[in-house]
Amino acid sequence: MAKIGLGVSVYQAACERISYVFDCFPRIYVSFSGGKDSSAMLHLVMEEARKRNRTVGVLFVDLEGQYKLTIDHIQECLALYAEHIEPYWVALPIALRNAVSVFEPKWMCFDPERQVDWIRTPPPNAITDETRFSFFRRGMEFEEFVPEFGDWYSQGQLCACFVGIRADESLNRYRTVNGSGWKSSFEGKPWTTWMSRTLYNVYPIYDWKVDDVWTYHGKYGKCHNLLYDRMHQAGLTLSQMRICQPYGDDQRRGLWLFHLIEPETWARVVARVNGANGGALYVQESGNMTGYRSISKPEGHTWESFAGMLLESLPPSTRDHYQDKIATFVHWWQDRGYGRGIPDEVDPKQESAREAPSWRRICKALLRNDYWCKGLSFTQTKSPYYEKYKAVMKKRRLKWGIY
Amino acid sequence: MFATLRLESKADHLQYFDIPAGVSRDGHLTPPIRLRTGLPRPWCARITGADPTYGLAREFLKPNKGYLDANRNGSSGIYLYFNLAPGIYEVQEMLAWNLTRRYFLRSEAGQCQEISLQEMDIWLKSV
User: Fold this and answer.
1) N vs C: which end of chain A shows fewer Cβ within 10 Å?
2) Which residues of B fall within a CB distance of 8 Å from A25?
């Protein structure tokens, strides 16, 4: 789709959007990660807040295994705007995805039962009391916490959550911003998305390019996360510079960098997060090692038998989880023209477009340690319902006769 | 500053009924049809002035429909969320699945306040 210029610079446009949000929304908070985009956005929002003498909430979810430089940067930003900020530095036991281990597919940051192993202790101003938020329950997922926090913060009033994503970053993010036709926005502004109840997400820098972000930091002399300087020194390209917790499904490819940039933190990460060291060693590989690109099966095996062998090699709880997903996948396709079972392999183009089922697709999901089986078109199960889901699946598997 | 108004869409599952696809007597395929039942539903309209036909000139607002608190069949817990810019509004809320109440609201500085018909008349004369 062709881009249509607004006749103003992206900086001006972002300022106008922020000003509009301050005009319309009684409650405002910024979702802050310490990255370059959210830092630029925080500076812009706080300039407007200072101008209007308004207080803005700042949510930072501390994921424990983070770079020290990021933590330093966040503290610097919070101190810089202290008089106009209502900080929410959340250091609670939240379940996080660990894509580098099949023994511990999820891990809990700031787990009170493993306090001696913590990578770092939260700062004194962090929220560590589990009763602070009425909606919080131990082990809830990060993806559940963030919208729940928004609802809680809104207090029934119209509330805007500033999110520093850019359409330029990925197709997914482009879709999030340009969701015309399926999403509901505030007063028809495409750079907003209705989330739930009275909460809207706002993307004021959605049209910025990565160059614009750094130009802004440089031109206006704003503080930035020094981790990016280290990454630049390590030879990373702009698109490779990611700061989020590095054990996720997509983020794990940057795990090798951790020990180069912050060796002192890395030692504690290895002790704390199952599989971190192995992940850092092998995550750059493709093929059967990580399930990236093309995979191959051992001599004398079919993809189906190979999937069985891979399942046998997994710990029982993880195996059972994958068996639930595979049983659902196979059964779904059985009802849709594959009554005699799914084929071993089909045209790779059809497989990658998720148009046809095959055991090779299943093997790929297993080798990739795709825990939620997104490659098989599944979505993440909400954590409070996971136990119920397991019980339902147990009955269904018996009924279907699969596993 | 905008205010927000939440209205429950009671018995939302009874708002429509579906006639499935089938074959007519003369052998033609008939497509599935969704029909409105005509039961009352909640709404909110901004009053923009007087209207010679209807008394009040109104702009009906499009709400966001939230299912987070809904029960399984959708008979309760479905809420409509309206964003109200500063101004005067007429609202129809549902007290029960077939019982409604209409009233006027003033939205100001992010807050809503119910106003009487007399207050509304005074405002209408002033515009």
Assistant:
1) N
2) 1-2
